[in-house]
Design goal:
By secondary structure, the protein is an alpha+beta fold. It is 28% helix and 25% strand. β6 and β7 form a beta hairpin. The longest helix has 17 residues. It is globular, with a radius of gyration of 15 Å. The two termini are 25 Å apart. The structure holds zinc ion (ZN).
Length: 174
């Protein structure tokens, strides 16, 4: 599978709501492989969501080695389909980055412990408990499916500053 181009904010496609996946078939498994290839091509990233490559379907990939988060990680780069939080508790105040806002970071408050219900790549319903780093990653990626990025939680001043930098970057990249 080949890597796709990652959309850079403020691309309007990043702000659209994605549609639920009705059937987990070969096309969805191919999309998951494409997302993983893109994430790996882009280098150091814990996750990527389908709208970041312009596909408005509710699927994201997360990749957090369990050893990086007290045993609570993913099984390699793992796909999560139609995610839904059935529990959210506690506060996690941390700094996030995003492949769609390269080189920038911003402070966001997330829940520190979540239980997420989702479909796996076989179409089986699963539930996974996540805390700390993995919980934050799940919430960041699920936000993408609702057209939200960490930048949307920042002050107008910071948003404008980052917007200018990204527009300049896009111009340079042609
Ligand atoms: Zn992101």
């Amino acid at each position: 599978m080949t890597a796709k181009e990652v959309l850079i904010w403020p691309d309007p496609n990043l702000s659209k709501t994605s549609m639920p996946i009705e059937e987990v078939d070969e096309s969805i498994r191919a999309l998951a492989s494409e997302l993983i290839a893109t994430m790996e091509y882009e280098g150091n990233s814990a996750g990527i969501a389908a709208p970041q490559i312009g596909i408005h379907k509710r699927i994201f990939i997360a990749h957090i080695p369990p050893s990086d988060n007290n045993g609570n990680g993913t099984n390699g780069p793992e796909a999560f389909i139609n995610p839904e939080f059935i529990l959210k508790e506690g506060d996690l105040h941390w700094e996030e980055g995003c492949l769609s806002i390269p080189g920038e970071r911003g402070w966001v408050t997330r829940s520190s412990r979540v239980i997420m219900r989702y479909l796996d790549l076989n179409g089986e319903q699963q539930e996974k408990e996540a805390f700390d780093y993995l919980a934050g990653c799940f919430q960041h990626e699920a936000d993408h499916l609702d057209g939200k990025l960490w930048i949307d939680y920042q002050s107008p001043l910071k948003r404008n500053l980052v917007r200018k930098k990204m527009l300049k970057l896009k111009k340079q990249n042609g």
